[in-house]
TrEMBL record:
The keyword Thylakoid does not apply. This is TonB family protein. It comes from Candidatus Thermochlorobacter aerophilus. GO terms for cellular component: plasma membrane protein complex. InterPro entries: Carb-bd-like_fold (IPR013784), TonB-dependent_transducer (IPR051045), TonB/TolA_C (IPR006260), TonB_C (IPR037682). Keywords: Cell inner membrane, Cell membrane, Membrane, Protein transport, Signal, Transmembrane, Transmembrane helix, Transport. Residues 1-19 form the signal peptide.
């Protein structure tokens, strides 16, 4: 009987793994220079975020198969948007070039601000339509490359990035070597809430929600990746990701006096007063 139960459990685990894929790649600038600290996010049936390392590589593991919107951002750089279909049991690679057929966020923000000053207040139905149209905005057509073990062997730094991401997942799943001191937010949750900018279109439409994010932090207090445990509206998710990656400082976890990698779960509420 015990063997039968183990066989069933093994079958379930194998089925779950086959239903997940991996997305890897590199973020570079207009001159093909690697961009470190870029935020690469996917949103669909789940939402996940990876931060590119010093060589520009990003890694997203255990992504449920399905279709996702893909986005890469870095403060001071144009945004990159695309879409990808994740296939179970397959590692796909998408490299992103910021500034290449991308939308300039700063220019768009300035234009939006200018237009907002002269616009008349919108009715709720008009605002909801605006949100729906923005969600349907066309993205870049990208062709993922299926990556093999032989391909990875040619890029040692990418292989290293994948191994580090796998170790982080294993530690989080096993809950081993738990730090004596948890990761802390500098200034507390209030510091995050004070930096949150409620998307105006959603505020007009009175769309509320709570985003719960799990942030993995390295020994220096830098975010490594973010999992949205409880996502909300796409634009609320994006605002939380922006603040956590660009506006928030963390104190790393500690074992004794030594800083170590750790994680913290953060709820962010969007409520119209």
């Amino acid at each position: 009987m015990k063997k039968i139960i183990l066989a069933i459990l093994w079958g379930l685990c194998a089925s779950s793994l086959l239903a997940q894929g991996r997305l890897i790649g590199r973020v570079v600038g207009e001159n093909n220079e690697p961009i470190a600290g870029a935020t690469v996010s996917i949103s669909g049936q789940t939402a996940m975020v990876a931060i590119s390392n010093a060589q520009g590589y990003y890694v997203l593991l255990d992504v449920p198969q399905g279709q996702y919107e893909l986005k890469a951002t870095k403060r001071g750089q144009p945004v990159w948007r695309g879409s990808v279909t994740i296939t179970g049991g397959v590692t796909q690679r998408i490299d992103m070039k910021l500034g290449d057929k991308s939308e300039n966020l700063a220019a768009k923000a300035a234009a939006d601000a200018k237009r907002a000053k002269i616009e008349k207040p919108k009715k709720e139905t008009e605002t909801k339509k605006e949100v729906e149209e923005e969600e349907k905005r066309p993205e870049q057509e990208v062709t993922p490359v299926v990556t093999t073990t032989q391909d990875l062997a040619k890029e040692k730094e990418l292989q290293k990035a994948i191994e580090e991401s796998e170790q982080l997942s294993q530690l989080d799943a096993a809950q081993t070597n738990l730090p004596e001191t948890d990761v802390e937010i500098v200034g507390g949750i209030e510091a995050i809430q004070s930096k949150i900018e409620y998307p105006m279109a959603l505020k007009r439409a009175r769309i509320e929600g709570t985003v719960v994010a799990r942030v993995f932090v390295d020994e220096q207090g830098n975010p490594l990746r973010i999992s949205l445990v409880q996502p909300a509206n796409k634009f609320l998710n994006e605002e939380v990701i922006r603040v956590l990656t660009e506006e928030t400082k963390f104190k790393p976890a500690k074992i004794g006096d030594s800083p170590v990698r750790g994680a913290i779960t953060i709820p962010v509420k969007f409520k119209i007063q």
